[in-house]
Amino acid sequence: MSVSVLESASPRDAIPPFCGASEIRLRTDDFAFEAMRATGSEDDVGEHTHEAPHFLFMLEGAYVSSAKDAPDVAYGPCLFFHPAWTTHRDRVLSGHGRFLGISLFLDVEGHSKPLQSAAPTYITNVGSIYAARAIAQELRQPSPAKFAIEAAACQLIGSMDVSIVGERSAPAWLGRAKDMIVEASSEQLTISGIARDAGVHPVYLARTFRRFLGCTPGEYLRAQRLERAAHLLGRKRHSIAEVAVMSGFSDQSHLTKVFRAAFGMTPGLYRRRSILKS
């Protein structure tokens, strides 16, 4: 089933093209995300050029790539980076497989040396693969969180360069960024906006969150919302649907899915157990 979650406030092209059938699409000012399903024969894929720099995360299937250090055939999950204006004939074998394309419109100069390489790269960094998988999983949610996806994308970029050493102690702006993330409405919340107000680059913001808090900005926001939801559920003054909205979730279904994944139980069961304990 094709799902479209397309948002764009930019004059740039909505979604750069990939070969295959689009399943999910998301466009922000700094990134374009597209979950794809391979279709047709691999022989139908000719030499083609990608204008924008991009990651390709192969979720399922076999992929043939001309990237540096890539095996003759790479099996998903596997991750590649292609710089701007890459011309190649990379393709999914047998026309069967699923992959995620992540195109970049963010200036990363000085924040990730590997991404300034002139050659396509096969990525084996576990942190990078983890970030790419987090993006793919969030895109599949009934209500994908744009902020969490952008945060994971910045973490993906930051994870590429392990040579960069950050501060030894948490910078003063980190506390302000945490407050802004919690206090801003979902409509106002963007990684670039938080980074701009903190006076840092979005990739540096994500890298600093990971260094000192052990999570991405998106994961931090989700944890704060879950904490508020748990608090409200324990007070028994509001319905679960009201708790969901008050905590920043799109609806009760969204809260239930995230809450169960985090705590191993539904909000309703958590409330009943809280009542028994009180």
**Helix segment count?**
9
Q: Please compute the radius of gyration using only Cα atoms.
A: 20 Å
Alpha carbon gap, first and last residue = 46 Å
Which stretches of 5+ consecutive residues score pLDDT under 50? Answer: 1-14
Q: How many extended strands?
A: 10
Morphology call: globular
Oligomeric status:
single chain
- Which percent bin holds the helix content? 25-40%
Just name the CATH architecture of the largest domain.
Sandwich
- What structural category arises from helix and sheet content? alpha+beta
Structure at a glance:
With 278 residues, this protein is of the alpha+beta class.
Molecular structure report:
With 278 residues, the protein is α+β, with helices and mostly antiparallel strands. The chain has three domains: 3-143, Jelly Rolls (Sandwich); 158-219, no CATH class; 222-277, Orthogonal Bundle (Arc Repressor Mutant, subunit A), CATH 1.10.10.60. It is built from nine helices and ten strands. It has helices spanning 126-139, 146-159, 172-183, 191-198, 202-213, 217-235, 240-246, 252-263, 267-277; strands at residues 3-4, 21-27, 31-37, 48-50, 54-64, 74-75, 78-82, 86-88, 91-104, 121-123. The strands form two sheets. Strands 1, 2, 3, 5, 6, 7, 9 and 10 form an eight-stranded mixed beta sheet that branches. Strand 2 and strand 3 form a beta hairpin. Helix 2 packs antiparallel against helix 6, helix 6 packs antiparallel against helix 7 (240-246) and helix 6 (217-235) crosses helix 9. The longest helix has 19 residues, at 217-235. The chain starts with a strand and ends with a helix.
